[in-house]
C-alpha cells in the first residue's frame, strides 16, 4: 500500500480502516523513506484542525484537567472550568497534576496522575518512564509525565529542552506537547527544544517523526539527520548532523557562529549565573567554540580572548565589557 499525504491525513484524523492503520504504522516504524514529504497547505481553519488534533489525542475522552502548561487550546478551556477548582486543591495537597478520564463505558473511570519535574539552572536530569522511554532534561526545563500510560497514547508535556529515546510501541503513539507544537512518534530518538523565548526546534537522530504546529495544518514528516524549526507560524526543514544537537547530554557546549546575545542565556542556564553585557554592541559579536565539561571561568576566558573583550566574575554575577 502506497503511503501518501492523503492516507497520512486520514491516519492522524483517526479515519483509517484497520488495514490502512496497520500499513501506516508499519511505514512509520520502518523508518525507510519512500518519497520526500514537504509542508502541506491548510485545508481547514486553524480552529478546525486544533479541534481534530485534540479529539484524536484524547479519543472519546472527556478532559476535566490537564497539566498547567500554556498551550494554545482555547477551544477546550470551557471544559476545565469546574475541574480547575478541584485540581488546585489536589496540587496543594499532593503536588500532582490530575487528568480525569472517562472511557467509552459510563461505569469505567480512572484518574491519571501527572508528575512535574522542574530542572534548576546548572543541573540536568534523566528520567525513565514506565514504558521504558528514557528522557534527558536540560537545565531550566519543565516536564510533565503520567506515572503510568493507561490509554492508547503516551502523552507528555515539555517546556525547555529534552532528548527523547522513545521505546517502540506500535499500538501507542508517543506525543510530546509544547506551547507551539506537537511531536508524534511510535519509537525513535530525537531532540526537542521548546522554550518560551526560543523557536521550537526538532532534530531527529533515528526513525521517523511527525511534527505539527498547534492549531495549524502544516505538518512535516522528519527522518534521521533532519531538523525542523517552527517560528513565526512557519515550519522550515533542513538537513543537519543530529549528533551535535544532543551534545549537551554529554556535557558539551557547542557554539556554531552564534551571537553573544544567543550564547548568554545558554551560559546562564548551564552555570546558574546572571550575565550582564555592559555594551549592547557586544551582543552582535559571533561566537564559535566547543567546550566539554569546562568550568565557567574556562569558557569565559576563551570567549573573551576570541572576541577581544573583558569579563569579571563575582559570586554568581558575570559582567562582559570592552
Automatic annotation (TrEMBL):
It comes from the Bacteria. Gene3D superfamilies: 2.60.120.1440, 3.55.50.30. It holds the Pfam family FecR_C. Residues 252-318 form the Protein FecR C-terminal domain. Keywords: Membrane, Transmembrane, Transmembrane helix. GO terms for molecular function: sigma factor antagonist activity. Residues 117-210 form the FecR protein domain. The chain crosses the membrane at residues 79-99. This is DUF4974 domain-containing protein.
Amino acid at each position: 500500500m502506497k503511503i501518501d499525504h492523503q492516507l497520512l491525513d486520514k491516519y492522524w484524523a483517526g479515519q483509517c480502516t484497520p488495514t490502512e492503520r496497520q500499513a501506516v504504522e508499519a511505514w512509520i516504524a520502518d523508518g525507510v523513506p519512500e518519497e520526500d514529504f514537504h509542508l502541506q497547505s491548510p485545508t481547514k481553519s486553524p480552529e478546525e484542525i486544533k479541534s481534530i488534533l485534540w479529539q484524536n489525542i484524547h479519543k472519546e475522552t472527556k478532559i476535566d484537567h490537564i497539566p498547567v502548561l500554556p498551550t494554545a487550546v482555547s477551544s477546550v478551556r470551557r471544559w476545565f472550568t469546574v475541574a480547575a477548582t478541584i485540581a488546585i486543591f489536589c496540587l496543594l495537597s499532593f503536588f500532582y497534576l490530575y487528568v480525569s478520564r472517562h472511557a467509552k463505558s459510563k461505569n469505567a473511570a480512572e484518574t491519571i496522575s501527572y508528575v512535574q519535574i522542574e530542572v534548576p539552572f546548572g543541573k540536568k536530569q534523566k528520567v525513565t518512564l514506565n514504558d521504558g522511554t528514557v528522557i534527558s532534561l536540560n537545565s531550566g526545563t519543565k516536564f510533565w509525565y503520567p506515572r503510568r500510560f493507561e490509554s492508547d497514547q503516551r502523552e507528555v508535556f515539555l517546556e525547555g529542552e529534552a532528548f527523547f529515546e522513545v521505546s517502540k510501541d506500535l499500538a501507542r503513539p508517543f506525543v510530546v506537547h509544547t506551547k507551539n507544537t506537537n511531536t508524534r512518534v511510535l519509537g525513535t530518538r530525537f531532540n526537542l527544544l521548546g522554550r518560551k523565548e526560543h523557536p521550537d526546534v526538532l532534530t531527529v537522530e533515528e526513525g521517523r517523526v511527525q511534527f505539527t504546529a498547534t492549531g495549524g495544518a502544516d505538518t512535516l514528516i522528519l527522518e534521521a539527520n533532519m531538523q525542523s524549526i517552527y517560528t513565526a507560524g512557519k515550519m522550515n526543514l533542513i538537513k543537519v548532523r543530529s549528533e551535535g544537537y544532543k551534545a549537551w547530554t554529554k556535557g558539551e557546549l557547542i557554539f556554531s557562529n552564534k551571537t553573544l546575545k544567543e550564547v548568554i542565556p545558554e551560559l546562564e542556564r548551564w552555570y546558574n549565573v546572571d550575565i550582564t553585557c555592559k555594551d549592547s554592541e557586544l551582543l552582535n559579536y559571533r561566537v564559535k567554540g566547543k567546550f566539554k565539561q569546562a568550568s565557567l571561568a574556562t569558557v569565559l576566558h576563551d570567549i573573551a580572548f576570541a572576541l577581544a573583550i573583558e569579563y569579571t566574575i563575582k559570586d554568581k554575577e558575570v559582567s562582559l565589557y570592552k
